[in-house]
Design brief:
With 436 residues, the protein is an alpha/beta fold. The protein has 2 domains: 364 residues, Amidase signature (AS) enzymes (Alpha-Beta Complex); 57 residues, no CATH class. The protein has an 11-stranded mixed beta sheet with strand order 1-3-2-4-6-5-10-11-9-7-8, with helices on both faces. Helix 3 links the parallel strand 2 and strand 3. Bound molecules: glutamine. The site of glutamine has 14 residues, from strand 4.
């Protein structure tokens, strides 16, 4: 077997060849200068049988998660030179289990975007189709896993930012249930919706990584003790297919065929379900995100960290700050933010109602194929990339995107949603699809 050191060296060479020199894929903003030394130490621990569960694994981290000594830039000029003084809880846990952190990945600026193009450091390219976007906002994390620059990666998902690029790049991405994973040390986009999650090449790695980073954390009051995630053989699964209109019929057919195949093979059942208000997801999501993002970014005033955000940020970030500031004015409070929170609650209840009759909901991850990099699309079109992923964040449930096939050689992801804290069931179902 390859040592951790050999493996890390190989990944670094691959990155040098295909990511940094000539900026072919541009998945990384910064490489960890100590990666080789850390790998060497871990090999010593393996030899003396003292190594943790992630020994031998090489992991990339999205640039909005604090890693001590590395540049947590959020792909923004605001934090371009910000060197993190501490580890986020998830990073502390990775290090305790002896993972090698290979570097900080590119993403949409402050995780605001669906394509990776709002990064202040040039967009990431889709490793499967270099002229296309890889999806966003965790563009670099998904691309790094797909391009084989690392074993796995961490991303963050507020409205789809892990699942959407996982879908376009043909890898596996999980948005965990709200509160399963500590957000301490994540630079938030919208604190009531954000979750840190995993991007991997297979389901077993996803289980390993998610088990490592989940659990109660004193520094994040929304977290709680959780049971270990375990794969079981799921029996008599009832799949709910939501009645929604997707313009791209090819995508819908691909997913439907996949579901029918597995049901035939395993004797699972399909039911059509109606989830009320799901069509309001995007309209509900943005007032919440704008308001919480505006509030969260007030600390980037140029005094303590880096530059003043309004002076250097790109148009999407500025749009959200201005929008959030408008919504936050006292006279509007009830009209937008509170109303959105009420609709969020209604959507959550609708999902709870649906899960009384079914085990999981299956639908495409993204309703359209990725566009060409730098092809201007409208804001509405950009926001619509997330219309099928946002509902899970509003409902606080878990959701995964797994590769379902290809259309014109472009990967298409299938999304499986399960109730809050039903990660074991969700991953066990996903495992059956992986093996099929
Ligand atoms: N694309 C969505 C947005 O721009 C989702 C972002 C995310 O999940 N971080 O807000």
């Amino acid at each position: 077997m390859n040592s951790t050191l050999q493996k890390t060296k190989q990944y670094l060479e691959e990155i040098k060849k295909n990511d940094q020199k000539g900026k072919k894929i541009n998945a990384f903003i910064q490489i960890n200068p100590n990666a080789l030394e850390e790998a060497k130490n871990i090999d010593n621990k393996i030899k003396s049988r003292k190594a943790g569960k992630l020994a031998g694994y090489v992991i990339a981290v999205k640039s909005n998660i604090n890693v001590k000594g590395l540049n947590t830039s959020c792909a923004s000029l605001t934090l371009k030179n910000y060197i993190s003084p501490y580890d986020a809880t998830v990073i502390k846990k990775l290090k305790e289990q002896d993972a090698v952190i290979i570097g900080m990945t590119n993403c949409d600026e402050f995780a605001c975007g669906s394509s990776g193009e709002t990064s202040a450091f040039e967009p990431t390219k889709n490793p499967v189709a270099l002229d296309l976007i890889p999806g966003g906002s965790s563009s670099g994390s998904a691309a790094a896993v797909a391009a084989d620059f690392c074993d796995m990666a961490l991303g963050s998902d507020t409205g789809g930012s892990i699942r959407n690029p996982a879908s376009h790049c043909g890898v596996i991405g999980i948005k965990p249930s709200y509160g399963l994973v500590s957000r301490y040390g994540l630079i938030d986009l919208s604190m009531s919706l954000d979750q840190i999650g995993t991007i991997t090449k297979n389901i077993n790695d996803a289980v390993l990584l998610l088990n490592t980073i989940s659990g109660k954390d004193e520094n994040d009051p929304t977290t709680f003790e959780s049971k270990k995630i375990e794969l079981t053989k799921p029996k008599k699964i009832k799949i709910g297919i939501p009645k929604i209109k997707i313009n791209n019929k090819q995508i819908q057919n691909l997913i439907n065929n996949k579901v029918e195949q597995i049901c035939k093979k395993l004797g699972w059942k399909i039911t059509e379900i109606d989830i009320k208000h799901i069509d309001l997801a995007i309209k509900t999501y943005y007032p919440i995100v704008y308001t919480e993002f505006f509030s969260g970014t007030r600390r980037f005033d140029g005094r303590r960290y880096g530059k003043k955000i309004e002076d250097v940020a790109g148009p999407e970030v500025i749009r959200r700050i201005l929008g959030g500031s408008e919504i936050s004015k006292a006279e509007y409070k009830g009209r937008y933010y509170r109303t959105a929170l009420k609709v969020k609650q209604l959507i959550k209840q609708e999902f709870e109602k649906a899960f009384k009759k079914i085990d999981c909901i299956i639908l495409p991850t993204v309703p359209r194929l990725p566009h060409k990099i730098k092809n201007k699309i409208s804001i509405q079109e950009m926001y619509s990339y997330d219309s099928l992923t946002v509902p899970a964040n509003l409902a606080e449930i878990c959701a995964i995107s797994i590769p379902a096939g290809k259309i014109n050689n472009i990967p298409v992801g299938m999304q499986i949603m399960c109730p809050h804290l039903a990660e074991s069931k969700m991953l066990s179902i996903a495992k059956e699809f992986e093996g099929a």
